[in-house]
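Hi there,

I know you've been waiting on this one. I reran it after we fixed the sequence typo, so this is the corrected version. Both the input and the resulting structure follow.
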Amino acid sequence: MQRRNTEKQLANLRPFKPGQSGNPNGRPRKALLSDALRRQLAIALPGMSERTQAEAIAAALIREAIDGNVQAAREIGDRTEGKPAQAIALDLEVSDWRQMAQSSGLEINEIIAEAQLLIQSAQSDTD
């Protein structure tokens, strides 16, 4: 026996409209582990009601750094001062595009025409 598809079933087979997402809100953000860790870190140490587990971990990390553990010292620095910025090498030398064009065998008029096309293309993309 052949089964007939309903309109609703057929509508589900059609692709999304251009620019429309099938999941507009994206994957739900779940921080189950982070939430559980934060709750545990806020609990007082057994037998020491004035000190939390987070404070005990911080003290242990500091002791490790004092004893020469470089990773512990780095972690403390990253958490308190932020990670150091990475250096990026830049070449700020400005080259004369005319010389570059001539050495590549291109005519200046060809380069200007190509640049104008690129500018027009970029402008039409932003409109």
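Quick highlight: The CA atoms of residues 7 and 13 lie 10 Å apart.

Best,
R. S.
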